[in-house]
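Please fill in the sequence for the structure shown.

STRUCTURE ENCODING:
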């Protein structure tokens, strides 16, 4: 019998590699954007638009990816499960795009983009293409067709990066920053269209065979996930939107520039915390179908606990790696006017550690079918996010947004654990969890307390020795080579 942990590592590499490379390459676009957009306010516009993209993709996929994986395990007619999922997503997106075309100017006015309706239409086209492509890509994952999945994702990433480099380096005029925003959106749209191009068979072979009863069951299962996902995106991205709309004073153009500057600085520094998110995203591609596949195993709880141990150790290591080498990583932001926001990075890194732990725990309500609890947790977190940001942004600006993210993700992690132990107990190793997390935080504060004033060889040596000691601790506790083999 194959080792399930080893299988998860292999699947994470196969399915997650395109995501890792894609996000890394997008991460590497940060130096480009922060250099060509001389003013942080211009980069703030791009960041806000992509915050809306994140909202819409969650809404327009309607939780059907997870519902599809779930019903594959319990229904005999796998083709019908896919048909129902795919048709549901297509229907939702067609309605959305028609409404967008009818009311684009009204939407642009509300979002403070009255002079740039084209941003709204392009953004809508991007999210619709991505959302409709999600189910055929999920089908490839379910069929373990990793090569085709990876090829499509790499092709899309290549088009996006290539067009960004060409348009921003050779066509873009810095005196017309609005053109740069359009170039970025066009590059994204063409990259998104690559996916349905390679998945054309799924579109051509789609049949209007819709089983209302199955659709009802899938929607009932998926709806709380969609609500929870939507609320989760509020936690992840609403801060950039609120920063702009709270700081902006109606009728005061200067305040709009100030607001977009805050968004630009915060978003650029937020990108440095995305190294944890990149790891989590890659892991999620493989972990969700893996967790469902282990649901019938007698050792499932032991496997889930072991996976959690490894996960916490790795994400805490990334937290230390970035936060203790911030003097190196800050140079990915080429314009020093953005560096004023670097103090949010350790806060956001830890927040992303918490959200990764929460994702691992979330398997309890997905396996038990009690997805309503995921929605409850996410909605409560969304309310907290909104309250903290609305109350404190006027005084503390983007620092309020960073701490809101930290507090909410910590709350969700704890709430999910408590509810999970009541309704679907999984015996996690809390001793190791607190050891790994506590040691990482302690090492960070030790480094801060040493108070090196500037980047020196001694600072680099001491900080990275702390990281090596942490790696040694993990290796001693887990003995990963022995466990995997």
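FILLED IN BY: designer on duty
SEQUENCE:
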């Amino acid at each position: 019998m194959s080792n399930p942990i080893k299988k998860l590592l292999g699947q994470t590499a196969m399915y997650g590699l395109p995501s890792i490379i894609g996000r890394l390459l997008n991460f590497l676009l940060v130096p480009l954007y922060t250099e060509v957009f001389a003013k942080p306010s211009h980069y703030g516009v791009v960041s806000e638009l992509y915050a809306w993209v994140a909202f819409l993709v969650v809404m327009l996929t309607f939780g059907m990816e997870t519902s599809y994986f779930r019903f594959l395990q319990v229904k005999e007619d796998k083709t019908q499960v896919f048909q129902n999922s795919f048709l549901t997503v297509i229907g939702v997106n067609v309605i959305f795009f028609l409404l967008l075309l009818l009311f684009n100017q009204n939407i642009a006015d509300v979002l403070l983009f009255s002079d740039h309706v084209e941003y709204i239409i392009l953004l809508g086209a991007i999210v619709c293409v991505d959302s409709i492509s999600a189910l055929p890509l999920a089908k490839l994952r379910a069929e373990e067709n990793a090569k085709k999945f990876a090829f499509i994702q790499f092709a899309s990433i290549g088009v996006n990066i290539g067009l960004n480099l060409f348009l921003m380096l050779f066509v873009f005029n810095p005196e017309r920053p609005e053109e740069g925003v359009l170039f970025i959106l066009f590059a994204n749209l063409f990259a998104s269209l690559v996916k349905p191009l390679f998945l054309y068979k799924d579109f051509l072979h789609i049949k209007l065979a819709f089983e209302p009863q199955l659709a009802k069951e899938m929607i009932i299962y998926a709806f709380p996930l969609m609500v929870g996902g939507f609320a989760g995106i509020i936690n992840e991205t609403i801060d950039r939107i609120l920063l702009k709309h709270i700081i902006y004073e109606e009728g005061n153009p200067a305040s709009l520039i100030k607001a977009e500057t805050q968004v630009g600085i915060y978003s650029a520094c937020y990108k440095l915390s995305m190294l944890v998110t990149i790891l989590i995203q890659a892991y999620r591609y493989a972990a969700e179908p893996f967790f469902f596949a282990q649901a019938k195993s007698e050792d499932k709880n032991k496997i889930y606990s072991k996976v959690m141990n490894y996960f916490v150790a790795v994400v805490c290591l990334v937290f230390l790696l970035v936060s203790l080498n911030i003097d190196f990583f800050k140079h990915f932001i080429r314009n020093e006017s953005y560096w004023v926001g670097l103090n949010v990075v350790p806060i956001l890194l830890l927040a992303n550690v918490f959200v990764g732990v929460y994702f691992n725990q979330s398997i309890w309500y997905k396996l038990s079918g009690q997805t309503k609890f995921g929605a409850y947790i996410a909605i409560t977190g969304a309310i907290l996010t909104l309250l903290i940001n609305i109350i404190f942004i006027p005084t503390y600006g983007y620092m309020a947004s960073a701490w809101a993210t930290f507090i909410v993700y910590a709350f969700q992690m704890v709430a999910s654990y408590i509810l999970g132990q009541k309704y679907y107990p999984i015996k996690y190793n809390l001793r190791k969890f607190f050891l790994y997390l506590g040691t990482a935080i302690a090492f960070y504060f030790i480094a801060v307390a040493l108070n090196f004033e500037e980047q020196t060889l001694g600072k680099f040596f001491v900080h990275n020795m702390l990281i090596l000691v942490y790696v040694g601790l993990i290796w001693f506790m887990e003995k990963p080579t022995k466990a995997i083999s």
